[in-house]
Each structure stands twice: as structure tokens, then as C-alpha cells.
Specification:
Layout (H helix, E strand, L loop, with lengths): L1 E4 L2 E4 L6 H7 L7 E5 L2 E3 L14 E6 L5
Parallel strand pairs: 1-5
Antiparallel strand pairs: 1-2, 3-4, 3-5
Length: about 70
């Protein structure tokens, strides 16, 4: 299936969870927030949140500075 991560097309296996997708993309799970179709997904749900084709996933990385 195809999903979009930060507007980039990504191919993932059917029934991939959000946590599996992060692993596939080599994205550390610390210091990030994730929204799917403009809805924040709590990190406690990443392991059981199955993705659907066409979803738009926004990964936001916390940064320091000011």
C-alpha cells in the first residue's frame, strides 16, 4: 500500500502499524509527534494503529533552540 509521510510517497506492507512504519523509515520514536490525516496519534497507540492506503502522515520532530 502507499501512504504519504511528510508529503513523500512511501510503500508499506498491508496491515503495517505506525510503529512498524517508523522502523522501516529508520525514524527514532523519541522526540517526535505524529498526526494521521490531521489527527494526533498518541505514542501509546503507535504499536497497534494499523495504517490504511492513502493516509497522510505528518511526523513532527521536536527541536531545541529559540
Amino acid at each position: 500500500m502507499i501512504v504519504y509521510v511528510n508529503d513523500q510517497k512511501v510503500e508499506a506492507a498491508d496491515n503495517t502499524t505506525l510503529l512498524q512504519l517508523l522502523t522501516q523509515l529508520n525514524t527514532p520514536s523519541k522526540g517526535i509527534a505524529i498526526a494521521i490525516n490531521q489527527e494526533i496519534i498518541p505514542s501509546s497507540n503507535w504499536g497497534n494503529h494499523s495504517l490504511k492506503g492513502g493516509e497522510k502522515i505528518l511526523v513532527i520532530r521536536a527541536t531545541q533552540g529559540g
